[in-house]
Amino acid sequence: MTTTARTRHFSFLRSAMSLARVSLFRQRVPITVLWMLSNRCNLRCEYCCIPSREGKELSTERCLSILDEMAAAGTTRVGLLGGEPLIRSDIHEIVTHAKRLGMMVQLYSNGYYVPKKLETIKLLDGLFISVDGPEDVHDLARGKGSYAAAMAAIQAARPHVPVFMISVVTNRSRRHLGYMAELARANDCLVTFQTVTKLGDLSPDVTCLELNDQELDEVFLELRMLRRENPHVVTSEAFIEKVLNRRPDQPRDHYQMGSIKCWYGKALANIDADGTVYTCSSLIGIEQGLNLRDSTFRQAWDHIGSTRCQGCNITCGGEYNVFLSLNPSAVKNVVRILWRVLRS
Ligand SMILES: C[S@@+](CC[C@H](N)C(=O)[O-])C[C@H]1O[C@@H](n2cnc3c(N)ncnc32)[C@H](O)[C@@H]1O
Ligand code: SF4
Ligand code: SF4
Predict the structure, then answer these.
(1) 9 assigned to some structural domain
(2) Which of 46, 95, 291, 339 has the fewest Cβ atoms within 10 Å of its own Cβ atom?
(3) Each residue of 18-68: pLDDT tens digit?
(4) Contact 105, 124 (CB under 8 A)
(5) Under a CB-based contact definition with an 8 Å cutoff, are residues 316 and 262 in contact?
(6) To the nearest whole percent, how much of the chain has pLDDT over 90?
(7) Among residues 112, 65, 104, which one has the least CA distance to residue 86?
(8) What is the pLDDT of residue 16?
(9) Which ligand is nearest to the CA of 130?
(10) Does ligand 2 lie within 6 Å of residue 318's CB atom?
């Protein structure tokens, strides 16, 4: 077994132990931290306004010490995103340090810098590349040439790391779910979907791109059919059922769509590009988080423990939430994904 494969097995084992602390022993542990390392980005996608945000990034030195503090608090998985995380010149140091601490590290990228940063990519436990559909549909949403860059990134990274495509479903791209499933099969990677959402001040008004109720049903019925016939589609059956059986009229105190228990703030946290810790990215600008320039990660994590979120309608956190609730079919789905990842 290679050293990379051994460290991957070790990271998964540590994550499983932290999960047991949260799910079985009801402790509050920041198992997964989603960290927006930068607002900077080379693209201007139609549903995202992160690149137009201001705010100073954390220094390399502070990023590394935050990783130490996160490890001490029990974090076993970090998701690096942005903006475009590979735009940071110190990304290799950050990923190397997280791996040294035994964390599972996954990185979300538009793909542009992947071929040039393969040494960093090789260290990851998973690389998520955004692909929204066929070239014309993708480029219309994300900019000319961005589909070709995403495909080149997948080709370059695939021999070294498990690759996931992450696809934003809008009322334009919703007709191309079958295309995405076949693209994942052809490239031997996995594909996951998230519906376009208004994400606080991270996105513009996306009303004209959103799915209406009927379209949401059609999308998730098609995903249910696709995942049954194509193992590269990894949206879980559990999450699909939750969306199809959503109860939007139910009280939403800490429940998404009136039906999914939310684990953000109990097992998940979000760090904004300026270093502020929030319960989740939908609460940026709403919740008063502490900033890691003048607080430790532990202090900031304890601080968000008091947030009482009124719930939301988003689907992107849904997969984490059904899994952390130990829904049997969601757990089975994660085991299926891990099996593929560990074999690759
Ligand atoms: C914020 S981006 C950061 C990583 C990288 N720049 C990228 O585009 O993959 C993380 C994911 O969120 C998606 N995203 C951005 N704005 C969104 C929105 N308003 N609704 C749903 N997903 C969105 C992106 O397409 C991407 O897959
Ligand atoms: S979705 Fe990603 S690639 Fe597109 S503008 Fe936002 S941060 Fe940049
Ligand atoms: S906005 Fe949604 S995902 Fe975020 S904390 Fe509230 S219920 Fe959870």
Answers:
(1) no
(2) 339
(3) 777 777 777 899 999 999 999 999 999 999 999 999 889 999 999 999 999
(4) yes
(5) no
(6) 66
(7) 112
(8) 73
(9) 1
(10) no
Question: Predicted confidence band at 327 (pLDDT cuts at 50, 70, 90)?
Answer: confident
Model pLDDT for residues 274-307, shown as the tens digit of each residue: 999 999 888 888 889 999 999 999 999 999 986 6
Whether residue 45 has its Cβ less than 6 Å from ligand 2: yes
Cα gap 122→163, rounded to integer Å: 11
Residue 3 lies inside a defined structural domain of this protein = no
Using pLDDT thresholds of 50, 70 and 90, give the confidence band for residue 8. Answer: low
> Ligand 1 within 6 A of 203 CB?
yes
Helices (H), 86-195: 91-100, 118-121, 135-142, 146-157, 177-186
104 vs 6, higher pLDDT: 104
Give me the CATH number covering residue 123.
3.20.20.70
**52 found inside a domain:** yes
The ligand whose atoms approach the alpha carbon of 266 most closely is: 3
Nearest to 30 by CA among 335, 331, 298, 308: 298
Instruction: For the chain, give percent helix, strand, coil, nearest 5.
Output: 45, 15, 40
Tally of domains in the chain: 1
Specify the amino acid at residue 150.
Answer: A
- Residue 258 Rama label (left phi>0; alpha psi -120 to 50; beta): left
Q: How far is CA 16 from the centre of its chain?
A: 18
Tally Cβ neighbours within 10 Å of residue 309.
20
Structure token pair of residue 124: 């990851």
Q: Is 206 within the bounds of a domain? A: yes
Please state, in angstroms and rounded to a whole number, the distance separating the CA atoms of residues 302 and 305.
5
243-271 b/e (C-beta count within 10 Å ≥ 16 → b): beebeeeeebebbbbbbbebbbbbbbbbb
More confidently predicted of 87 and 213:
87
pLDDT at 3: 61
Is 84 close to ligand 1, i.e. is its CB under 6 Å away? yes
Owning domain of residue 104: 30-343
pLDDT of residue 192: 94
